[in-house]
Amino acid sequence: MRVLHVYSGNLFGGIESMLVACAGVAAAASDVEQEFALCFDERCATELRAVGRLVHLLGPVRMSRPVTAHAARQALDAVLRRTRFDAVICHAPWAQAIFGGVVRRRGVPLVFWAHDRMTGRHWTERLARHVPPNLVICNSAFTHASQPALYPGRRAAVVHPAVRVGAPLRQRRHVRMSLETPLDAIVIVQASRCEPWKGHQLLLDALAVLHATDGWMLWMVGGPQRPHEQAFLSQLQASAVRAGVADRVRWLGQRPDVSTVLAAADLYCQPNLEPEPFGVSFVEALAAGLPVVSVAQGGVCEIVDDTCGRLVTPRSVEALAEALRLLMTDAARRAALAAAAPDRARTVSDPLTQVTRLRAALASVTGRLELAG
């Protein structure tokens, strides 16, 4: 089965990480040959090429400049004329709205991959509604529940995002020394986009409650990629100073070695203020052997259970602080959760398993037989 993934590719977050993980699954193992069509030649394209995948560049698209969208549509049409694909997957409403019509005119099965809860109200969703797909893939059961808001009555399937679950590079001493962090410190880490709803401020507030607890440090991984994210980061840094915990916080920015950084920490905490549609970062933390502390809402409830972490009441500083305090001070409990974490990551997001499930779902619109099992 030959599949073309279509996406913007200008930033790097959970969707891009998932695409790279999918790309790393050999066609011989999954019976799926994958190619990628991106608008921007940025980090995502570079990493896809690094695992040997063909990347078709469609050209930068700015919705404020319709001529760029027209040129990109023509570029995708040329790709579809040259190569026969069994299905084309548009990732997120933006790609569906811009490119879905091209795919349908070429008579190729069109698949929409929903990476976020659907409301039908965002302008990209309103445009995407005019291009109904043959199939909707949802990244979680949580996302699937919102499908009727955008594509009522359309066939849908849940496929968790693939996450590379290998043994991370263990450089605990080196990473900690480079970040001016004591070797015996209990390190809490958050690795996410600089967006307020990811819960950075709530985590700082909880740790301010634990100011008197000795020996903890916080690593914030993920730098701003857009101007409003830079403004938010500045607010967070000022907040840490006001709370009196700035000396315990390290701002790491964008890192190419996130798995290595995670493996040098002790706990992962990302207390989202709004429900996470899935949460690739949680799986990456589990894969690195970290217990996860988050909030009991959204897709994380499909990832984290009592074997590998703790979920607390949303938006509660007190509940979050107590969960962190318990795992900071109970080394045996922390070690037990850490030991179970990698297996949980594989269960939830093993790349070969998820690409195989994707192929089975696509078979329902391509007419191909599903793989046995």
CATH class designation of the largest domain: Alpha Beta
Mean of the pLDDT scores?
A: 94
User: How many separate domains?
Assistant: 2
Q: What form results from the Cα inertia axes?
A: globular
* Largest sheet, strands/sense/barrel: 7 strands, parallel
Per CATH, the superfamily of the largest domain is Glycogen Phosphorylase B
Q: Structural class, from secondary structure content?
A: alpha/beta
- How helical, in percent, are the residues? 40-55%
Q: Any idea what the radius of gyration is?
A: 21 Å
Query: Based on DSSP secondary structure assignment, what is the total number of beta strands?
Result: 13
- Strand fraction: 15-25%
Number of helices: 15
- Low-confidence regions: 369-373
Strand arrangement in the largest pleated sheet = 3-2-1-4-5-6-7
Order of helices and strands: EHHEHEHEHEHEHEHEHEHEHEHEEHHH
Distance between the termini: 17 Å
CATH architecture of the largest domain: 3-Layer(aba) Sandwich
Output the CATH topology of the largest domain: Rossmann fold
Describe the SSE topology.
Layout (H helix, E strand, L loop, with lengths): L1 E6 L6 H10 L3 H4 L2 E6 L4 H8 L4 E3 L8 H17 L4 E5 H14 L4 E5 L8 H6 L6 E4 L2 H4 L11 E3 L13 H7 L7 E6 L8 H10 L6 E6 L5 H16 L6 E5 L4 H6 L3 E3 L10 H8 L4 E4 L13 E4 L4 H13 L1 H19 L1 H16 L7
Parallel strand pairs: 1-2, 1-4, 2-3, 4-5, 5-6, 6-7, 8-9, 8-11, 9-10, 11-12, 12-13
Helix pairs in contact: 4-5, 9-13, 12-14
